[in-house]
Amino acid sequence: MKNENNIIARLEAMLFASGEPIEAARLAEVLELDVENITKMLGALADTYDERNSGIRLIRIDGKYQFCTREEYADDVRKLLEIKKNTPLSQAAFEVLAIVAYNKTVTKSFIEQIRGVDCSGSIANLVQKGLIEEKGRLDLPGRPLVYGTTDRFLRCFSLNSLDDLPDLPKIEDVEKLAKESGQTTLFDDNSEQNGDISEADEETGEDLI
After folding, report:
1. How far apart, in whole angstroms, are the C-alpha atoms of residue 76 and residue 60?
2. What span, in angstroms and rounded, lies between the C-alpha atoms of 120 and 19?
3. Are 105 and 147 contacting, i.e. CB atoms less than 8 angstroms apart?
4. H helices of the chain, where?
5. Which residues contact 14 (CB under 8 A, 6 or more apart)?
6. Has residue 149 got a pLDDT over 70?
7. Is there a contact between 108 and 99 (Cβ–Cβ < 8 Å)?
8. How far, rounded to the nearest angstrom, does the alpha carbon of residue 106 sit from its chain's CA centroid?
9. 198 near 207, Cβ under 8 Å?
10. Partner of 107 for a Cys bridge, out of 3, 85, 144, 153, CB 3.0 to 4.6 A?
11. Which pLDDT tens digit goes with each residue over 193-204?
12. Residues 100, 115: contact at Cβ < 8 Å?
C-alpha cells in the first residue's frame, strides 16, 4: 500500500507539472509499470479529489488525463485570471518571449533547454496575454506543440514583422555585460531597464496586457 501511495504521488506530480493531457501509456512508460495498474491508480486519484470536494479534478478526455478546476468555482478562477492578465510580465516571461520571437517557432522543450528550468507558467502567461499562440504540432513522437508570436506582439512592440527585431548581441558582448553587471541573462531585474509591460504603447494606444 505504501508503494502504491508513492506511485500515486508521482503520478500527481507528473500530471501537475505537465499542464497538458497525458496518455496513461506514457505515464506507465515513465514509471515502468503496466497501463492497467496506472489506469486504476489514476482512477483512485480522481476519486480522492472528488471525495474531498477539492477545487481540482482529474478528468479523462479521449484517453488522456489532465487536472482541471471544478466547474462550480469557474467564476472565481475567471476573476483571478482577469487580475493576473493585468499584471506586468516577469523577467522569466520576457526571456521566454525573446526565445520565441527570435526563433520564430519553438516547442516548450526547446525553450526549457535554453533556460534550464520549467517554463509552463511563463508560456501559459504569455498565451493568456495574447503575445504568443499555438502554431501547430511537430511531426515527431508525442506531437509536441509549437509556439510562435502573435500580431498583438508585433503591435505591442511596434514591429512590422519579426525581421524588424534588433540583432542579438554577440556572445562575447553578453559575457562582458554579465560580468560587469553581475547578471546571468540578457535581461536585468531592474524594471527601469525592462520597462513595464502594463504601460500602453504610445503609438498604438493599446495595452500590452
Report:
1. 23
2. 7
3. yes
4. 2-18, 24-31, 35-51, 74-85, 91-103, 108-115, 120-128, 151-156, 171-181, 191-194
5. 22, 27, 30
6. yes
7. no
8. 12
9. yes
10. 144
11. 333 444 334 333
12. no
Q: Which amino acid is at 161?
A: S
pLDDT of residue 1: 53
What is residue 162's DSSP assignment? Answer: G
User: Collapsing DSSP states into helix, strand and coil, what is residue 69?
Assistant: strand
Q: Give residue 99's identity as a one-letter amino acid code.
A: I
Q: How far apart are CA 109 and CA 141, in angstroms?
A: 13
Task: Please give the span between the terminal C-alpha atoms of the chain, in angstroms, as a whole number.
Answer: 48
**DSSP code of residue 207:** B
Residue listed under C-alpha cell 508513492: 6
The three-class DSSP label of residue 168 is coil
43-92 pLDDT per residue, tens: 999 999 999 999 999 988 767 898 988 889 988 888 887 766 666 788 89
Cβ neighbors of 76 (< 8 A, separation 6 or more) are none
Q: Is 176 helix (H, G, I), strand (E, B) or coil?
A: helix
Find the Cα–Cα–Cα–Cα dihedral 10, 78, 48, 42, rounded to 10°: -50
The residue type found at 69 is T
